Here is the input.
Amino acid sequence: MNPRILLAGRTALITGSTQGLGLAAARQFEAAGCTIVVNGFADGKYIGADLRNVSDIEAMMRFAGPIDILVNNAVVRHTSPIERFDVERWNESLAVNLSAAFHTIRLALPAMKARGWGRIINVSSIYGQRGAANRVGYVTTKTALIGLTRAVALEVVGTGVTCNAICPGTTETPVHEATIQSLMKTERLSHDDAVRKFLAGKQPTGTIIAADDVAAMMVFLCGAASSDINGSILPIDAGWSSS
Here is the structure.
């Protein structure tokens, strides 16, 4: 099948899609024939909704119009021991990483149900299935996204809509690349050695997961062969969750 017609005529909204995994997803869905609505903090043809604010989310959904595919990818990350975790940063984590997905889903579902077709993909993380020190906001919200996914999946049974979550391991993103570049500089390592050090004790392969590979899984979840995949929590972590 021509990949350009796989999702022809569908509209996909991808939050947090101006860089990293979200941008890779936008490109893959566009290549599959979708009309794309992107969101994030950057210049370009997108809606720059601040996902900390419900009114901005509602405006974004009105701007997007009826959508067929919703990818909740937007995320903020803050690192601190819990006793020093800034309360504003905690509230921001809940708003962007979790509540934004609740709001986009509740606003997108009526039109999806009315048309008898829709795909919701929540981007959780390996840290939605495992704990990590000094990352209480990220771990908590990514874990909660899995619960949200399961609850919504049961509510949409028989409607033609599915809701699934993916749990990537360490994927190529500007955030991770910045950490790798810092290791290269401070410890005088090659890029490959810095990656291996960064991933030590995590991904058994010792290599970063390609953002395009994760995005391809998203597109698959919207294809005809995945119509019975609903409420699934799909790891894409190079064996990390099995170790």
